[in-house]
Amino acid sequence: MKHFLIGLISGFIAPLLFGWLFMLGFYHGDLSISSALIVMKSNTMLMKLLFVGLTPNLFAVFLLTHFEKWNICRGVFVTIMLYIAVAVII
Question: Are the C-beta atoms of 3 and 71 separated by less than 8 Å?
Fold first, then answer.
């Protein structure tokens, strides 16, 4: 159970951190990042940003299955499903 929670917590934090770093690296507009996210919500760009943010989770699932860390992998996979559900709802 402890390993599942480690995967769940890291699965929630990694996409947020990666998405924030992605925005800092590639967004060079005049708006602040929070204002840019509000503008992105009005079209499909926020959904695409969420899918880009899932990249470290997908890589983590690949590595965890390779090293047979199944409980941690389940936690990360649950967060992937939750992020996909949020992206579809947005």
Answer: yes
Per-residue pLDDT, averaged over 22-38, amounts to 87
Phi, psi of 68 (to 5 degrees): 60, 45
pTM score: 0.85
Q: Token digits for 11?
A: 């699965």
The identity of residue 10, as a single letter, is: S
What is the reported pLDDT for 66?
Answer: 96
Q: Quick check: 53 and 18 in contact, CB under 8 A? A: yes
Residues 6+ apart with CB under 8 A from 7: 64, 71, 72, 73, 74, 75, 76, 77, 78, 79
Question: By three-state DSSP, how is residue 77 classified?
Answer: helix
DSSP string computed for 32-46: -HHHHHHHHHTSTHH
